[in-house]
Design brief:
single chain; about 100 residues; mainly alpha; about 60% helix; about 0% strand; flat
């Protein structure tokens, strides 16, 4: 679930969203991505990844957590180093050329 924020549902939006999904859709645990409109707009405007323009974004952190969970489920034996993950794509290509 993306764009999670307290405004429309009051305090504890994650809990309330999970309760509604459990009750009306019988959906199990969900992954919540907090709202970071400014960070996402900046990334889109500059054609960059959210991690490049807002490395401490709560949305970026939630998306990274989801990616790790999916990677763990897939059992991927190959993991990028932390240094490689934080470099822009053009820097990674130059390093491998």
């Amino acid at each position: 679930v993306t764009r999670v924020r307290p405004g429309p549902v009051g305090p504890e939006p994650g809990r309330r969203i999970q309760e509604a999904l459990d009750r009306f859709a019988a959906v199990g645990p969900v992954h919540l991505v907090p709202e970071d409109q400014e960070g996402l707009d900046t990334a889109l405007l500059h054609g960059r990844a959210l991690a490049e323009v807002r490395p401490r974004s709560v949305a970026r952190s939630a998306i990274a957590d989801l990616a790790r969970q999916l990677d763990d489920r897939a059992g991927s034996p190959v993991r990028a180093s932390a240094a490689r993950r934080w470099r822009p794509w053009w820097a990674r290509r130059a390093a491998t050329a």
